[in-house]
Write a structure and sequence with these properties.
This protein is an alpha/beta fold and 337 residues long. The chain contains 14 helices and 12 strands. The strands form 2 sheets. Strands 2-1-3-4-5-11 form a 6-stranded parallel beta sheet, sandwiched between helices. Strands 7-6-8-9-10-12 form a 6-stranded mixed beta sheet, with helices on both faces. Helix 1 crosses helix 3. The longest helix has 16 residues, at 83-98.
């Protein structure tokens, strides 16, 4: 039976460094007011003794937990089936890990979950929150504001008529990207261009619809069908489009998943892509966009970078100032259009 060596204490570090316990505590917990030579002595003693700060005590001193809540306003069946969320979470995780912060994932299945998330955030368990995939009637913004913790949102805020003055968010140029998609289709000589929208209670879908209308005008209302950013929604919308407008010759789908569903229906109904109907998506989610039949022309947004930037803004601190960061999009041409 072996004996476990006692864990080095703050007092042991102080004795080794020849300084007071209070000085060691300030250095270990990132406080100010310690001269650089003493800081170096403390750090050297910490390294020599293998001292590891007690996280619970450190939190009491610094009021920090080195943990960030990531709140996704979707049920888990959607989150784990949609690669968009995996990419955004990967970007967030990389940035938090680089700064020695833990990611706490919170999902919302229904109204009871909203209340649970609000209580958790208000309970002082995390230093801040990253929130995305909000819907216009979502109570989360109010609950988060009540919790009083720093927050960065993914996507342009759409609540309260466009968002409060102190909202910090990261988004892509959804409207501009949609314009580029539709202009590309028109440039191919297509005249019956349809749009399968995303869920229109989300600002990304609303902005992409506006981008479509910027190019096509109000036009024939039958050429716009609401989807929900899913393959099944894309299939349903494509069938409805073909029933309404059999002469449709191009489709801009609000995301790659919806486009993949539209491609399946076109293939089933004997429509050649792109010869009969050109199709373009939005996101450039790999490998999905390369593996559709045919490979998908799409608008690329850097989803992983959006996640990293959200985390970076939160960790850096915004001082309460309103900050909206909008990342550019680019057209990626493949075989579908």
């Amino acid at each position: 039976m072996t004996e476990t060596a006692p864990r080095p204490t703050l007092e042991a570090v102080a004795a080794r460094a020849g300084v007071s316990r209070a000085t060691v505590s300030r250095v270990v917990n990132g406080g100010d007011g310690v001269r650089e030579p003493l800081v170096e002595r403390v750090r050297r003693a910490v390294e020599e003794l293998g001292y590891v700060p007690n996280q619970a005590a450190r939190s009491l001193v610094t009021r920090r937990h080195d943990a960030v809540a990531v709140v996704v306003a979707e049920p888990e069946t959607r989150v784990f089936a949609d690669p968009f969320f995996a990419l955004q979470l990967r970007g967030i995780s990389k940035e938090l890990t680089a700064h020695d912060n833990q990611l706490v994932l919170l999902l919302t299945e229904g109204r009871d979950d909203h209340a649970r998330v609000g209580r958790y955030l208000a309970g002082g368990h995390v230093d801040g929150a990253l929130v995305f995939s909000l819907h216009l009637d979502d109570p989360l913004p109010g609950l988060i504001q009540g919790a009083g913790i720093p927050t960065v949102f993914g996507g342009r805020p759409g609540w309260n008529g466009g968002g409060a003055d102190d909202v910090v968010y990261v988004d892509s140029d959804n409207r501009g990207g949609a314009r580029d998609a539709v202009r590309h289709l028109v440039g191919l000589g297509r005249s019956r261009v349809a749009h399968i929208t995303g869920a229109l209670d989300q600002t990304s879908a609303a902005d992409r619809l506006e981008g479509f209308r910027d190019v096509m005008g109000d036009g024939d209302p039958r050429l716009v069908v609401e989807g929900d950013f899913t393959p099944a929604g894309g299939e349903r919308a494509m069938r409805e489009l073909l029933d309404r407008c059999p002469d449709v010759d191009a489709v801009f789908a609000a995301n790659d998943l919806a486009a993949s569903g539209a491609l399946r229906v076109l293939r089933e109904q004997g429509r050649r892509v792109p010869e009969d109907v050109a199709v373009i998506g939005f996101d450039d989610m790999l490998p999905l966009a390369e593996q559709t039949d045919p490979p998908l022309t799409t608008i690329r947004q850097d989803i992983e970078e959006m996640g990293r930037l959200m985390a970076r803004l939160l960790l850096r601190g915004t001082g309460g100032a309103s900050t909206g960061v909008v990342l550019p999009t680019t057209l990626v041409r493949r075989a579908s259009a």
